[in-house]
Amino acid sequence: MTDKPKRLLGVDLGAARTGLARSDDLGMYSVGLGNIKSYDLDKAALKVAEKAEEINADIIIIGKPVNMNGTLGEKAHLCEQFGQKVSQFTKIPIDFFDERLTTVEAHRILGESGIRAKNRKNIVDSLSAEIILQGYMDMLKNKNSK
Question: Does residue 3 lie in a domain region?
Answer without folding.
Answer: no
